[in-house]
Amino acid sequence: MTAIWLLLRSELRRRWRAWLSLALIAGVFTGGVMTAAAGARRTGSAYARFLDWSKAPDALVDAVPYDPRLATLAPAAVLRVPQAEDATVVKSFDASPGLVQFISPASSAIPGQFWGRKILSGRLADPGRADEINVSFTLARRLRLHAGGSLRLEMESTAGRRVPFVFHIAGIDAAQAEFPPQPGNGTFIAWGTPAFYGEHPGLSGFVQVALRLREGSRDWPAVLRELSRAGHGKLPEASLLSLQSRNTQRSISPQAVALGLLAALFGLIGLSILGPLLARLTFLEATDYGTLRALGMGRGQLTMTCAARAALIGTAGGLAGAALAVALSPVLPVGLARVAEPHPGIDADVPVLAAGLLAVIGVTVACSAWSGWRATAPASRARLAEPAWRPRRTVMSGLVGAGPVSLAMGVRLALHRGAGRTAVPVGSAVASATVGVAALSAAIVFGGSLTHLLASPVLYGVTWDVAVSSTDSVNVGPVVAAARRDPQVAAWTTVRSGGPVQIGPAEADMLVLPASGSSFVPAPVTGRLPRTSREIALGTRTLRQARARIGQVLPVSVDGQRARLMTVVGTTVFPTISDELDLGTGAALTPGGLSYLLPASGQIVPADTVFVRFRAGVGLRAARRGLATRLARRGQFAMDGPATPTDLLNFGQVQDLPQLLAAGLGAVALLTIGHLLITSVRRRQRDLAILRVLGFTSWQVRGTLGGQAVTLAGLALLTGIPAGI
Fold first, then answer.
1. I need a surface site. Which of 51, 241, 296, 317 has the fewest CB within 10 A?
2. Residue 9 contacts by C-beta under 8 Å, 6 or more apart in sequence?
3. Cα dist. 391→149, 401, 415, 704 in Å?
């Protein structure tokens, strides 16, 4: 062990710069892997941890339902459900504009020990003040609200009068049920205070009981039985919020998967670059092994020295990577996961950091131990003792021969790796630089493509400026009449959407293609759209879930009716309208197809939505406000702008990850080329001295080294840019 220690100290004094450069390369890759892996774990668990932190409810039960066929319940009876771990009463008031869902708790239990809210800006509303509210981050984005601002709402009284209120926005919050994607306007919530609940008993609305169950959704069947018993056999009007949570988690999961894949990709690239560099370093340092063997060191001792050197490099790289990962941890998570993250900021994921440190030490030791064992073999020592490489005449040398001598020598130094003591890792350095350039060009192309997609709503199925639907079960006839007489409206059509349809083993929501207004029909992706009553088009994800292909005949049913056979004629892109009508998910039918699936009804279900497109050059906000003003006198209608699919939005918010990857690989490429140039200058000092003896000036020597660097960079650019594109 003494000989190994002395040799290691000697090599460290001589070659610490090369070792440090390798440690920095290992640190960049390790830091990238740790950052992405920890970010994936943090992103994937952010929403679940948020629900635990906020003590979110599992279900909402309406005491007085909209449908008289359902059970009318006393709030006290719901509060006594034995499966409830905690419960409290809230009231949803009838507010205008219709997109705002105004909720006030009956007590200060919300937010407190129950249904807490994360404040993104501002503060919590004072529970003793009736004029203060918190608004959801989705509503704040939609109406461009901010903490300290105001929101004007009109409430419906039990006498039928509209009572105006102006609320002070104390803060912008994030709470369970406020996260997209949810159907309709469910996430646009304004939270009142217990003071407002107590001061305005004469305002109309519906009382709900929020329940947190002991066993979560597993208790739900038993809760429904208890509520049905309390309602004298009638079913309660209740919703399980875990379904909304599932939608939100589903939209966040692609981010976690993308970060996990990024970590794996970064690790594989790092291994492919760092492994040859470590092996090359081992073989270069093996030139002295013959002398050391003559002095009495055995092959095992030399191999252990190589492994110890690699362990030092790996430990330094692992510690640098861990520090980098902790420093970059506030950047992640992003998107909805960042909103949900209950503890943003610096985060040290100890399991990931420990696993990353052990992994980089193990990889560096494994690479160096094997190459060290090979380098200590007699045949390897003989090969390393060969004289310097012999120059060969190549096409490149012929091309540069006509130029300056310093340039020609620089190109030769860049392209020839040499042998023995003058050998340098040219191939691995060029490969590393090429990977960095390819990643950078790929990131630029990817970012441009994603920006174009997000700026082109028609590409994700949106062909309108506003969607208008009724909030009080009135038909959309008044909307059609208003759109016809509005000079700012260029086109409109009625749409039926959102009903569940069973396609073989898959379930999705349907979109009935408009009979008029062909410009509103989404374009097919593959195949074509349905034309007859026995044809159907699916989203690509729904097609996979149905385990079908275009041209196949499948059983299709709606609302529990008898299944009918329909032919899949194509796939299309669906706009985000409901839980199961989203990017890649849904089913498109003709009006005749719907009547074919509902033969018992005798008539087609009335249209529930009107899509409106305004004329070019019209201000969208002013046009929407004008249409809303005309509709306010005819009933309660909700107006929704086109919704960008949440999966797309979330992915758009992680579109900087490819740039981060490219920047990391670019840094590694610079470090690798720098390592190559330093090694080349040190190992070829004798060649450079011979050039000086032959008449080269100091500027010509510098030109030779510059030509070497330019050649390496040029090779990386010529190969990496086309590969990235």
1. 296
2. none
3. 76, 13, 11, 16
